[in-house]
Amino acid sequence: MAINRAFDSTSGTRCLDILANTRPAPSHMAPGPDRGELLRGVRLILAPLCGITDSVFRKICLDRGADMVVTEMISSEGLVRNSPHIRAIRDLDLHAGPLALQIFGSDPEMMGEAAAILSELSPRMIDLNFGCPVRKIVSKNGGSAVLKDLRLLENICRRVVERCSVPVSAKIRTGWDKPSAARVADIARTIEDAGVSLIVVHARTQSQGFSGKADWALIKTVKETVAIPVVGNGDVTGPLSYREMIDKTGCDAVMIGRAAIGNPWVFEEIQAAIRGEPYRQPSPAVRVEALLAHVGLAVARYGEPLGIISTRRIMGAYLKRIPNARGLRSQIMGCTRLVDLERILAGYRNQSAESHFQVAENSL
Ligand SMILES: Cc1cc2nc3c(=O)[nH]c(=O)nc-3n(C[C@H](O)[C@H](O)[C@H](O)COP(=O)(O)O)c2cc1C
After folding, report:
1. What's the pTM?
2. Which CATH number fits domain 2-275: 3.30.450.20, 3.20.20.70, 2.60.120.280, 3.40.50.150?
3. I need a labelling partner for 85 at 20 to 30 A (CA). Which of 43, 77, 209, 276 fits?
4. Ligand 1: which of 134, 258, 263 to mutate, judged by most atoms within 8 Å of the beta carbon?
């Protein structure tokens, strides 16, 4: 079988076991669509968010209007060397909806091997991470550090495209240090010439981190430079910024990250705007229920207390949009059991039912 062939060339067995238990996508989804099909029907994509966009989060966003989702970044080296610690690999749900698998690394051979292994699972695409700004990654020349060296960028892209049986996309920042149209155009051209099928542009350089505003003009530069589809990313938070990004850049689809944390409704809100339909924000009561459901799914997936502990950041983000939840935060953050969380939230709901919940819901 093709999957075993891919594994024969790897060194260990543990990763093999994990992936052998991960069934490929059903036949109606496999093999992945060709280059022209890549974004058919896709307007909104959930961004990869390390430590956040697990299968639970991805499924919730797909149910709320995301057209495609991406895994958090997966170490190519870890995958090929069979690290038993790759959570993202244990957590693939290829049946939930269109899924891209993202890998990072700096060695073209290792990236090619990892892509070959993963592409056997028939995801929608393999995405290459050329955007991560984190020191641990860039100090090993991975993530956005690859953007400093166009030769390396080209070699990684070429090798992955050669080894991959599904389309390949590349997620970039606009460069390493100073934002420049010339530089991002060179980067985009290099990627396209190497055979990559789609580029996602997070419109900040590595040195900009997450500060300031994303420079959408540079997404337009990329769109005008290459013929392959371009996805815009950075600071889209709702229908207005979605529309503005499309109008200003001409990008083919939009990727949303932080605005979806604790607010997966952002996708259905934008989808409604695209259809020209009115949209009613979820009430605080609905948000509380969704928070609880999210944690419940995480507990079903990872057990206790991991399912709760790993969801704390997401819980905090849900709470930001729930009125008078400040006192609730400290209680919730200490929880390690689902029953305790349910009890605290039930108490909050009862307390709030006749006061601010009503007021808040009426004012929406
Ligand atoms: C907590 C966190 C984790 C992230 N992890 C990844 C990752 O694994 N791979 C990646 O390409 N980008 C990652 N990013 C960047 C996002 O995918 C996205 O490019 C960035 O947040 C800008 O989009 P936004 O303004 O919609 O959030 C991460 C961002 C955050 C905040």
Report:
1. 0.90
2. 3.20.20.70
3. 209
4. 258
